[in-house]
Every structure is written in C-alpha cells, then in structure tokens.
Amino acid sequence: MPAVGKLLIAEPFLGDPNFERSVVLLCEHNEDGSFGFVLNQAANLELNDVLSQPTSTHLPLYVGGPVGQNTLHFVHRLVFLEDAVELGNGLFWGGDFEQMTSLLNIGKISERDVRFFVGYSGWGSGQLDQEMKQKSWIVSQTTADFVFETPTDQFWRAVLRQMGGEYRVKSHYPTDPRLN
C-alpha cells in the first residue's frame, strides 16, 4: 500500500507520458490526497539555471512531476538540516533552503546527498487509491542509499530487479512490445 517514504513504480505499460517508466518517492499520502517526486526524470537543466543566486556546484535538476512546474523542491539524506520533513529510511524532504545552499557552496554536501526537482506529482483525494486498483503502480520500500546511489537512467529497472520474482521479469519488458 502507498505510504510516506515508499516508492511508486510505474507499471511497464502505463500509458501516461508524464509517468512512463517513472519511480515516484511519496512525501505525503492521506485522505486529502498524495504527492511526491519523480526520482528518475532529468530536466536537462542544472540547479543554477533556476536560482537567482547560483551555488558553486553543478547539480542536475529533475522533473518532480507535471504539477507546479514553477516550484522548486528537494529531497535529501541530511538529518541535521533544519525544518526538514522525515520520510523514513534516511530520507528527508525540504528544509531550510538557505542552509542547504550554504552547505552546497562550502562543499559539505554533494549530488549523493540531495536531489532537486521542478514541479511535483500530485493526486487528489482517492485518486492514487483508484490508480492502485487499476494496477498502474507497484509499491516498494526504499533507502536513502538506493535513492542517491542508483544511476537515474537505470532506476526503474534497478528497483524492479531488487524486488525480485515477477518484478524482476517486468524489469526486462520492452518499452513498446509492438516493436519487439
């Protein structure tokens, strides 16, 4: 079942182009709705491309989802970052942005500690539960190490392989079986 800190893995043939082969980290899930960030969709931009005061780093930016494309968010594994929301398993969402950029500028944290997103993935009340009934998503546990150390271009397959069994088989499905 979906829960905060778990992953939603798109079924191999999910028809929505916003979520094709995507893996979403859930940051909120309750009766009012759900939201999270697509972990494996690069934005082809760097963090500095969207900041008014660039950092001294060159961190990639990711598309967190189709909602709120003019918003910036981050997920990290920094237990000490003020105002961060704990998601479990060493993962945190948000926190003091000035503290984060200061830590980036002095080299105390790296790409292996934080991921930045434009936009987010959101579901209204009951919407994600309905998509679960339609078998659009597979739910999995995760850890901060897996999130930050797995190459994003291999993320979807890697999480399914890690789950084993029928999911390992699904990790080998072609994107479009008509082309097989």
What do you see in this structure?
- The chain is α+β, with helices and mostly antiparallel strands.
- Helix content is 21%, strand content 33%.
- The chain is built from 5 helices and 10 strands, in the order ββββββββαβαβααα.
- Strands 1, 2, 3, 4, 5, 6, 7, 8, 9 and 10 form a 10-stranded mixed β-sheet that branches.
- β7 (85-88) and β8 (91-93) form a beta hairpin.
Rounded radius of gyration (Å): 16 Å
Structural class: alpha+beta
Helix proportion range: 10-25%
What is the ordering of alpha helices and beta strands? EEEEEEEEHEHEHHH
Which shape, going by the Cα principal axes?
A: globular
By CATH, the architecture is named 3-Layer(aba) Sandwich
Q: Looking at this structure, what is the CATH superfamily?
A: VC0467-like
Number of E-state strands: 10
Features:
alpha+beta; 21% helix
What is the topological layout?
Elements lengths: L6 E4 L12 E8 L2 E6 L3 E5 L13 E4 L3 E10 L8 E4 L2 E3 L3 H9 L8 E11 L2 H7 L3 E4 L3 H6 L5 H9 L1 H6 L10
Parallel strand pairs: 5-9
Antiparallel strand pairs: 1-2, 1-10, 2-3, 3-9, 4-5, 6-8, 6-9, 7-8
Provide a compact summary of the structure.
This protein is of the alpha+beta class and 180 residues long.
